[in-house]
Amino acid sequence: NSNSINNADNNSSSNNNRAVSQTTNTLLSDDHISTVEGHNPNRRLDPDIKREMLRIISYADEIDAEKQLFAEPVRLVNAPGYLDIVKRPMDRSKIRSNILSRMYTSAEQVVRDIMLMYENCELYNDSTSSISRESA
């Protein structure tokens, strides 16, 4: 159910710290679809491309405003085995952070990571689960 992986008790900080560390390692792995290896903090991103990226993620925020299914990382305390199944976790906060830190070089990368959120949901939850149906 949707509460099982996205609405967690915020009091489990040690589990969350471990989860963040595991998630960060996963996101920084060589096979992540974002251009982590090409990240250059001094690189200037074309303002039109950045605006388009922010427009895309804002639209995704609007679509999910009521349910907030993908606003934050999956709480691993509520999703046993998540990182064994999902190799590249993604959520809207990570996408927005990637935009602002110039991890992406194109709007297409933003769209790919948004699609990855939904693919991860179906992969972990099964396409017939209530959360997968809610996210569709």
Q: Would you mind describing this structure in some detail?
A:
The structure is a single chain. The protein has 136 residues and is mostly helical. 55% of the residues lie in helices and 0% in strands.
Output the helix-strand order.
Answer: HHHHHHH
Q: Low-confidence segments, ≥5 residues, pLDDT <50?
A: 1-37
Strand content range: under 5%
Estimated structural class: mainly alpha
Using the alpha-carbon principal axes, give the shape. globular
Number of helical elements: 7
Give the N-terminus to C-terminus distance in angstroms: 14 Å
Which range best describes the helical content: under 10%, 10-25%, 25-40%, 40-55%, 55-70% or over 70%? 55-70%
What average pLDDT do the residues reach?
Answer: 75
Q: Give Rg in angstroms.
A: 15 Å
- Biggest pleated-sheet summary: none
Overall strand count: 0
Supply database-style keywords:
globular, 7 helices, mainly alpha, 136 residues
